[in-house]
Amino acid sequence: MGVLMQAFYWDCPKLENQEFQWWNFLKKKVSSLGKVGFTALWLPPANKAANIDGMSMGYDPYDYYDLGDIDQKGFIKTWFGSKAELVELIRTAHENRLEVYADLVLNHNSGADADETNPIDGTKRWTKFNPKSGKFSRNWKCFHPSPYETWDDMVFEGMPDLCHRNPQVYTELLEYARWLIEEIGFDGFRYDCVKGYGGWMIRAIQELRGIKDEKGYKPFGVGEYWDSDRSISDWLDETNTWSDNPVAAFDFPLRYRLRDLCQVYGYSLKNLTDGGILMKDAPSQAVTFVENHDVVRNDPIFTDKMLAYAFILTHEGYPCVFWQDYYTWGLGQEDSANGIAALVRIHEDYAGGSTTVLHAGDDLYIMQRNGYNSQRGLIFVLNNRGDWNGVSVQTQWKNTRFVPMAWRGRNDLNAPQEKWTQEDGCADFWSPPRGYAVYVPQC
């Protein structure tokens, strides 16, 4: 399915000294990311935001069609740059075989030009929007309570809550998604705060047939449903019913299991074989991750984070790498077998097919990816002990040489030895202390 890079984090333009230049800054990274094996970029919301308390990350949308080319809300550019710079970033990404996903904030708006009294409940709200783009003007009927629907599932931080059952709102959001695909060049969407509105709205966008290169195009989509595995699965069922382009979801339950793997003393690796995570229940719809711009601010992983990255980049699902982990905190290590970059390359070249767990104990976990087409499969070893650890397992490969391509241990970066399987497919595979190793077959 590829590997996704979340190409931002909270307040990144300021913290990276790239205010109003983030699109240009990302453009310089695109070539190297493509060479490593990344296949897509997830960008922050590109629309002009309310900017009420200073520059915003875009999750408080005001003018959807102002991508940094209209003088309003204090600036012409967004915090990330101009529309022309965004289009150029997308063009460069496509030249390097990377797709680009837009972050769509459809639940709420902010920064209205005037307040209005909603006659349904007699309450004044800031719901009069007259954006200078001249597109998607809004009034109280576009928000809850509306003549078309009183309330939906969630109000976010007191911002006016869009009513998607209003035909105007529904039509405008579909048109906006089409515009982002056809005219700006995006390839798909990350849907923010999907708990807040009906899955049918997302299904409608997923079923759009944008035209690219004179051919119909199905956008990729992944929803942020921050909840339990059961709730996420129910949402996927609701949203994807009768859809010919199903949306995926972020695997939050897996993320918290990986947090415990990295940080809880004595964590049993047997837990990694349990259900209750999207990666096992619906791997084709699971976007797996270790950190994102939200969880890293309130519940970050501080210890042995590479164990989690080794897990998601060898297992099924669509793995997403966090910008700060890769760049800021130095885990990318593009010229090393000990970092994320080596795991990305392995994911693209070898991590195909279904998964077979060959061994699962409290301190040792060994998994086989069975391979599919040109991706030949791999052996992944995870060690929760303070010394080297391994065991003999029976693989599907007979009389085959295995070479370690990625590994890392706590205070031990020594490479594991090559292995040969016997006539029955058996060999002993080892991992460094409190670490991992990935072996690939030489067929």
Automatic annotation (TrEMBL):
Needed co-factor(s): Ca(2+)
Chain residues that bind Ca(2+) 3: 363
SMART domains associated with the record: Aamy
Listed SUPFAM superfamilies: (Trans)glycosidases
Keyword match Metal-binding: yes
Keyword Hydrolase in annotation: yes
Residues noted as binding Ca(2+) 1 in the record, renumbered to the chain: 107, 161
Record-linked Gene3D superfamilies: Glycosidases, Golgi alpha-mannosidase II
Keywords: Calcium, Carbohydrate metabolism, Glycosidase, Hydrolase, Metal-binding
Gene Ontology MF terms: alpha-amylase activity; calcium ion binding
UniProt domain Glycosyl hydrolase family 13 catalytic: residue ranges: 2-347
GO annotation, biological process: carbohydrate metabolic process
Positions that bind Ca(2+) 2: 152
Active site per UniProt: 192 (nucleophile), 224 (proton donor)
Family label: Belongs to the glycosyl hydrolase 13 family.
Record-given protein name: Alpha-amylase
Native source organism of the sequence: Candidatus Brocadia sapporoensis
